[in-house]
Amino acid sequence: MKISFDVDCTPEELREFFGLPDVKPMQEQLLKEVEQRMRTGLAALEPEAMLKTWMPAGMQGFEKLQEMFLNQLGAAALKK
Q: Which one of 10, 39, 70, 79 has the fewest CB atoms closer than 10 angstroms to its CB?
């Protein structure tokens, strides 16, 4: 024998029937926090912020490269 029945209710009604907590307020708060973190992360991806972060180190690296080439050229000139 097979018995089946359909229950027509909303998810909120079903959650309440089973005694599960309403997590909607907590979910909304967490989504606001995630949104804030994403905005902070995206601010770091702006071109101006990226240049400020990378250029000092990039310029130091360029200066080191120049020094290395000059030292090699000076050493080669002394050998002749």
A: 79
pLDDT in tens, 16-62: 999 999 889 999 999 999 999 888 877 767 777 776 766 666 666 77
Percent helix / strand / coil, the chain, rounded to 5: 75, 0, 25
pTM of the model: 0.43
Structure tokens belonging to residue 30: 């967490």
Assess contact for 14 and 8: CB atoms under 8 A.
no
Q: Nearest to residue 65, comparing CAs of 53, 75, 76, 73?
A: 73
Sign for the pseudo-dihedral over CA of 57, 61, 66, 67: positive
Identify the burial level of 15 via C-beta atoms within 10 angstroms of its C-beta, where 0-12 means exposed, 13-18 middle and 19 or more buried: middle
Q: In whole angstroms, give the CA distance from residue 43 to residue 30.
A: 20
